[in-house]
Amino acid sequence: MLLDVLQGSEAGGFIVIQDTIHCSGRELLKCFVNTALKREDAVHILGFETSEEELRNGLDNNCALKLHFHNGYTDPLGWTNCSLFTVKQFTTEHIGQLLKKSTNPKATTLVIDSLSWILRHHNPVTVCQRLHELKKGGSVKVIIALLHSDLHQRGIVGSICHLATTVISVTPGKRERSAMAKTTRRSKSGKVMQDEEFFNVTKDYAVTVQSRSSYPEPRQTEAETTEADPTANLTFNLRLSEMEREAKEKVALPFVFSQEKKSALLKPVKGSGRILYEPDANDDFDQEDPDDDLDI
Amino acid sequence: MFPELNSILNTSPDNFKGGEYILVSDKKADASFLIHHFLTFYLRAGCKVCFLGLVQSFSHYNAVSQRLGVSLIQAREKGQLVFLEGLKDSLSVLAQESPSDEKHTLDYLRPPCADLRGLFEFVQASVNQTGSSGGALWGPPVLVIDDLSVLLSLGVSVGAALDFSHYCKTTICSELQGNIVTLVRCEEEEDEDEIEDDSSDMLLRGLTHQCSLGLRVEGLSTGYCRDIHGQVEVWWRERCGSAQTQRKVFQYKVHDKGASFFARGTSSAVL
Q1: Closest by alpha carbon to A66, among A87, A46, A48, A44?
Q2: Is B206 on the interface with A (CB under 8 A)?
Q3: Three-class DSSP category at A19
Q4: Other Cβ atoms within 10 Å of A179 Cβ, number
Q5: Is B174 near chain A, with CB under 8 Å?
Q6: What are phi and psi of B268, to 5 degrees?
Q7: Cβ(B50)–Cβ(B105) below 8 Å
């Protein structure tokens, strides 16, 4: 599924790559850039977190001309007066102007590295609105954004992810040099697909996905062992067949006082004793004080 | 300077990598011995060092460095070291009612100023001296900050601290191929669930996204021990090709002059 998203050229898409401090999503972002360049798309990068050299490092040199880096790294706040792109210029009009450089809007990819930087300096509501405008504006085919999800409140991350058509969460894998990507993809019909894959990033920024069979998940095998049926080798029977149930229901329990038992007990038996009591005058039995005759 | 740590990090004063952002953090332990290590390391390496000492006085740093064999006074006189004595200077800023116009370095202490632009301009100016007065006397510039989280308690927001750190990174690491060492202290949280909005944790996470090498000092979970003072987790971020960070954990003991590092469970008290 990760490879589908990587290769996919669906228009109007918005892909969010979520990462945390434990696993960086920038390598995956570079893979997306690389694939877009190989598709001969024009790639515009709003770069706040990495320098141009660092970003270009390792990418295919043949397609480098198609890559437009808008430098928000050197001076994003206008402190040193050499700003090329500031964070305040994150407006639909300005980005529209930047994108005009590329001729074909149908083959333009906008990469934001990273949304966390923008969210730190803009109201989250404004950011969402502008992303939505960009998405619907038709000047770009697809927007790919990196988001450090552990730097924001959950609500903000949630609202960004609601805008996205695809969300990829990157977490560390079990083995070294591999990471796990949890992909959630919303198609236009509203169907939501989810998948978890282990992937590797090669030196020339291509993604290789390890198949599940070749990558036994330790967690799953653990679950299998715990799920082993504890009732398998019992010396007694836990379930009843229909016949057995009927037989069981017929048996009267020993201490249940049924009608038959009662009558059997109350039936007078021949030859048994009887108590006859006729109260005389001395038997002045007082109901209120049963111990009256004890003379204490 | 601790030779053992150098071999762990695979560097030496004669041969070290430029453009690195080193983040030192501590939790339930004191990581300032690493600050002293890096300070003496870069002074020995002949770098131009800008030191923002926000938590201790100059004489304290000088006393410790002297034990490690480097004199800060000499380095300062030679122009190799630029020292911002945060404790002393901030007091004069706070005591002074009317703001003086000539210095904006500690502007963040005054109410309307929300960003650390003044402090960054100080760093930039001291780092750029290499070209003008001293010629090519000193090597690549190095910024050492002890510690950044103290700014949070002085009323600076996490975002402003991260912006400051970003600007330092662009100027020193990318432009001038120098290095940055930053110390961040984490509060000891009593409740594990409340980590979400703790500002020092937020600062640590933000800086972790920026840094290239991290050293995390922690106390032993089992409590104080005479022979092992704690453990250091070393991690390298974003080495080419691997999306995941590399980690190594060592235990350490700080001595009078230096510190020793060893693999877990191999201290002299155990073996």
Answers
A1: A44
A2: yes
A3: strand
A4: 25
A5: yes
A6: -65, -25
A7: no
Tokens for B113, please give them.
Answer: 């100023």
Nearest-Å Rg of the Cα atoms of chain A is 39
Q: Is residue A52 part of a domain?
A: yes
| pLDDT tens-digit map of A157-197 | 999 999 899 999 998 877 666 788 899 988 888 888 898 88
CATH code, domain carrying B105: 3.40.50.300
Structure tokens at B265: 């469970």
The CATH number for A37's domain is 3.40.50.300
* A13: helix, strand or coil: strand
CA-CA-CA-CA torsion sign (B95, B99, B103, B108): positive
For residues B251 and B231, the answer to whether their CB atoms sit within 8 Å is: yes
Q: Which residues contact B147 (CB under 8 A, 6 or more apart)?
A: B35, B54, B55, B182, B183, B184, B185
Domain annotation covers residue B184: yes
Q: ipTM, 2 decimals?
A: 0.83
**Residue A14 contacts by C-beta under 8 Å, 6 or more apart in sequence?**
A131, A135, A142, A143, A145, A163, A164, A165, A166
Q: Which residues pair with A209 in a beta bridge?
A: A199
Mutate one of B209, B216, B239 to test the A interface: name it (highest A CB count within 10 A). Answer: B209
DSSP code for A18: E
Structure tokens at A208: 């290789």
Taking CA atoms, what residue in A is nearest to B238? A24
Q: What are the counts of helices (DSSP H) followed by strands (DSSP E) for chain A?
A: 10, 9
Residue B24, domain extent = 18-188+195-206
For the record, the structure tokens of B106 come out as: 């500690």
Give per-residue pLDDT as tens, A130-162.
998 888 877 788 899 999 998 998 999 999 999
CA distance A184 to chain B (A): 20
The ranges of chain A with pLDDT < 50 are: 213-223
Count of domains in chain A? Answer: 1
- Looking at the complex, does the CB of residue B85 fall below 8 Å from at least one CB of chain A? no
- Name the residue among B46, B21, B59 with its Cα closest to residue B211: B21
B187: CB partners within 8 A, 6+ apart: B198, B200, B201
B164 burial via Cβ count (<10 Å: 0-12, 13-18, 19+):
buried
The rounded radius of gyration (Å) of the Cα atoms in chain B is 19
What the block records as the tokens of B209 is 């996204």
